[in-house]
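Section 5.1 Outputs to date
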Amino acid sequence: MVAHGGGAWLAYFTSMEREEAARAGAGGVELVHPADFGMETLRREGKTHEEILAAALKAAFDRAGVVPGRVALAGRLAAGIAVAMARMLEEGGWKSLSGGGLMLALRRTKTEGEVEEIACAARATVEAFESVARMLADSSVREGEELWLGEERVTVARAKALAAQVFAAHGLEQPESSIVAPAEEGATGHSTGTPERVLRAGESIVVDLFPRGLLFADCTRTFCVGEPPEELLRAHGLVLEALEASLEAVRPGVRGWTLHERVCRLFENEGFAVPDKNPGTQTGYFHLLGHGVGYELHELPSFRKTGPGTDELRPGDVVTIEPGLYDPEAGWGVRLEDLVVVTTDGMTNLTPLPYALDPRSW
């Protein structure tokens, strides 16, 4: 896509991309056929993909009346293609710069239409969680505390497949693996859950779903079928307290880092390690309180102390609020995450779901 003073052009490369491009065209973007920039001719001449991209970009600049100068490149191009394009543009008198930061800043505050796209994905996420909760609630406990539904064990893969079916019915995808992480797997920051792992009664089950339509949604709940261990029950209560206090405090003019620090103090006072006092800890609370959500799963605003997007929240920001506590040695993890849009006087919760550990109470 090339933005210029009179609007924006979106060039698509094959007829297979025509329908997807038309969705952007509905927003006032002018569609450009490959032949308009000579891409088909270049392809027949045997030019490489990066040569065709660079030529198309130069043709777009000429069409817009833009003379050679500095050009910011942003997007999802593979590193090799981006480097080759930058080199070819420089041969034409252009100086290429990274436009990633600029792009993140420009798309931070969401329009009403973008918020509705996120809300659509969030509604499907709510439905998926309700389906997973019903599966767990309807399960029977058999030998070894294994969960069974019908005559099959309830595995990580089975729970993920159920959520994926809901997303597919809504025309959504989940580009990265969803998280269904039981016990010690949910206590680590990198496990998405072993597919063949059988879920069991009495253990924590961290479920984190983040589907994408045009934009992403993101939500987490933690379940436990049957009687939870005392430590898990206490941790869940503290995480819920942190979540509710943070949600109440979300409004324009508040920094994400401020909210994060408040949660750190709450957990620290209860005897848990926290990241601002114990950098690198893998026990207790070891991640940030939230992040922006939109065209990428993680974007601005940021809940870090310093860096891009760490200024005050503003209306139109869409962020997660996700406190958590973890104990790999004891084998439990708890995370509760809601997705909210900042409004002029507070926030609107896009994932209004129960927080209870017991799926039977949903």
